[in-house]
Amino acid sequence: MRRRSAVVAAAGLLLLAGCSSATSGGGSGGGSALTYMTFNTPSLTPAFWKTSIARAEKAVPGVTIKQIVAPSTDRDSYAKQLQASGQFPDLLESITPSQYTDAGLLQPYDQSWVDQNFLLPQGNAIKGKVYIPPTNSQIIPLVFYNKTLFAKAGVQPPKTWQQFLDVNAKLKAAGITPMELGGNDPFAAAMPLTGAISADVLGKDPKWIQERYAGSVKFGDADVVTAATKMRTLVEKGYFEQGALNVSYADSIKNFNAGKAAMYPMGSWYLGSIPKDQWNTIGVFPWPTDDGSLVLPFAVGGSMAVSTKAKDSAGAMAFAKAWSLDPGNLKALIEGDGAYPMLKGKTLKDYGATVSPAFTNSYAYVTGQNTKVAAIGWATSDDALPGSLNNDFYAAAQALFNSSDVKGQMAKLDQAWSTATK
Amino acid sequence: MRPLTHWFRDTTQDLGLRVIAALGLVLYLVFIVLPVFMSLRSSFTDENPLKAGSNWIGLANYREMLHDTQLRDSVVYTLALAIGVTAVANVIGLLFAMLLDRTDLSYRVLRTIAFLPQVISGVIVGFVWKTILTQDGLLNSVLTRSHLVSHPVDWLGTPHLAQVSVGVVVAWVLSGFTTVVYLAALQNIPRELYDAGSIDGANARQQFRMITLRMVAPATTISVTISLITVLKLYDVIQVLTSGGPANATQSTAQYIVKTAFSSDRFGYASAIAMFLLALSAVIALSVTSLLRRREVDL
């Protein structure tokens, strides 16, 4: 009898414990405790997040942050999983706001604050509203090159597509692997495709993505197929490293830094991964166009979005603003993630960052007068691709390694677009 | 067999046991049965994970599945993987079990090692094997240094080879489980049967065929069924190893479900695919179990 009572009592206690823990989780002991979804990369390390969060917390007394780390760089999918399970974070780092704005999940920043602080206040706006402070920008891709290997092959940085092919041919003839890729990670595999379509198609028609939304242009159109064929040409001619799709993104950085290939098409964040002893060895040039004109696949990025469901809306917004303008964070992002700063009234020197010549040279493209177009598959503004089309775009790039049917791959993207915009 | 309600009402049963059983039943209903019904309901809607509410769209999601080429490819690959991996893992499991069917301490240690792949998290398995299979990975280093190949092999970079590589990794994981299942079965075979076989003049091959294979038949049923179900719902290992690439060549149906739900924001459609996968798994599991049970009787 005693044993029976004990078991019943234990079960009852278990149930009570379950109920009490369910109701006591929200206590923050005074100020507000906010959840902040971040992600790790070789540049944005756990140490960076820890330091940057601590600094912004200090600037907003009463706010404490509980960090949630996305398991991969696909933070949008993770944010949606959290939303589906009723745990949508209060603050979300570097997501694609266009995927959430229709559902009313994000609150826009005060436009006057944005206008006051940033060089391109509408750089990543969605229907005129800013959901992520445009603190920095990226060029995706740039082509990084090894000056020593270029000198060995007797070639110069190319400007036109034909010159680019010639450089590749000469490097290969000299026994040098022309290009590093890291294609095991789909986004890295897509760098040449992003460069070709952004420069060739959007370079001639900057409103191409909006027209694709309207249905007046397609991936299957001749100009897009011609641009995508450039990537297939590079594959067919054997200009990428052997087994390019079997090399991870992290290994591709190591390989290029070790001088295993002469060129590396990658987003400008690679600037943060150039070792100091290679600063004078690694140069940079923009993705080449047919006529040599300067077209930059550009994406204005930034910091975090703020949820409309944030427990402490004012506190969340204050934290986001503090983090976004913190000089220490911006300096760390410039040095570690190659982020081009976009704050008004500041020069590169003002951040006190120590950067490579490749950073300084490529930052000149950002501040200079030239044609900047949305980096397809990377833009987070109105030019963001719908649904999972980024993933389909990356998969198409991987497919071009094993299929010569460029038109077929582009047609698949059109089909995926129809599904994504249903 | 008495209905479950009788068991709960039966006052001769220990109250504590009944409470624990009820708790288990509640957990099963809440965490298994209820989500299945919620998913079934969702499969008839256009539910979006980002939006509140949804519209009833009848069988539209199921009709769409008929024309979805990505789904078709993922189902074909998943089925091929399930059949291939189940066959390989069970053959390896039985062989390992026969090798380890000894009582010495060293064999007991080896048994623990054989079971390791099963207890390691799928995510860690994926990371470890990715390190082994990439271009500059351990396997290519060994093969090139020993001059068995002139160039590194593209294990994860070409569609067909990546599909096979995933199969090998998953078979490695499952072989830990199958080894333990077969080992338990082997240890229950009375030694007298082998002694009698020897006296009757049966050689090792005949003893394996006539005694071992027949006596482990119930274990084969369990091992094959669980292996099939495990592979049919496989997600973690592939996600880390290849992310479903290159160009979706190794995308499992479970990965496609997650992608559809959380990248394409089509929770309703993903639920319909999940229902299809559940039905497919149930049909396969029931068919295989029934087939193997009949074989057990025949043997």
TrEMBL record, chain A:
Alphabetical list of Pfam families matching this protein? SBP_bac_1 (PF01547)
Please state where this protein is localized.
Cell envelope
**Domain of life of the organism in this record?**
Bacteria
**In the UniProt record, does the keyword Plastid occur?**
no
Extract the InterPro entries matched here: Bact_solute-bd_prot1, SBP
Give the main location. Answer: other
Q: Which of UniProt's keywords are assigned here?
A: Signal, Transport
Using the record, list the residue span of the signal peptide; answer none if the entry has no such feature. Answer: 1-22
Function according to Swiss-Prot or TrEMBL: Part of a binding-protein-dependent transport system for a sugar.
Tell me which family the UniProt entry assigns to this protein: Belongs to the bacterial solute-binding protein 1 family.
User: Can you name this protein?
Assistant: Probable sugar-binding periplasmic protein
